[in-house]
Design a protein that fits this description.
Helix content: 25-40%
Number of strands: 7
Strand content: 15-25%
Shape: globular
Radius of gyration: 14 Å
Bound molecules: adenosine-5'-triphosphate, magnesium ion
Structural class: alpha/beta
Strand order of the largest sheet: 1-7-6-2-5-4-3
């Protein structure tokens, strides 16, 4: 599945739709260069999940838990991780993310090559920034029923 998102709001809106389709135990890996829009997408996912608190790029924190807000239809916590400063798999193990994984949606910026082993399946989202500032987003479901779920997401009404 591939999308072209020309504005920040388009990326946030797509994240919101994706967030609405996520389930407990889902692992989403966001890949893309600095400033490509990983956090914007994570903010949209947080909105789609109906979680509390602003999803931001934390400076001193690597992982943050956003609890669901029932008033916003929230069902699941969002665990938002920025793995930029993590060296690799060993550092990821120290975060103990598997303790919360099954009951939450876990979204990891810069997680490629570091967090895939946490779950049997994951959704890889690759963001590329074009010269005209449009973002090209590619979704690649790895394992489980991700391919079917992406087909449903692509077909779902906005
Ligand atoms: N189509 C777009 N989608 C997302 N962001 C966009 C888009 N067009 C422009 N932007 C801008 O690009 C920036 C994306 O920033 P963001 O913090 O989400 O990137 P990031 O990938 O998380 O960066 P980092 O690697 O530092 O964590 C924002 O300033 C946003 O306004
Ligand atoms: Mg970021």
């Amino acid at each position: 599945m591939m999308l072209e998102l020309s504005k920040e709001d388009d990326t946030r809106e797509f994240g919101r739709r994706l967030g609405g389709a996520l389930r407990a135990g889902d692992l989403v890996v966001l890949d893309g260069p600095l400033g490509s829009g990983k956090t914007v997408l994570a903010q949209g996912i947080g909105a789609g999940l109906g979680v509390r608190g602003a999803v931001t790029s934390p400076t001193f924190v690597i992982s943050r838990v956003h609890r669901p807000d029932p008033a916003r239809g929230g069902r699941l916590p969002l665990v938002h991780v920025d793995a930029y400063r993590l060296g690799g798999v060993a550092d990821v193990d120290d975060l103990d993310l598997d303790a919360s994984l099954e009951d939450s949606v876990t979204v990891v910026e810069w997680g490629s090559g570091k967090v895939e082993q946490l779950a049997d399946a994951h959704l890889l989202v690759r963001i590329e920034r074009r010269d005209d500032d449009t973002r090209v987003v590619r979704l690649d479901g790895r394992g489980a029923d991700w391919q079917e779920r992406l087909t449903m997401l692509a077909a779902a009404p906005r």
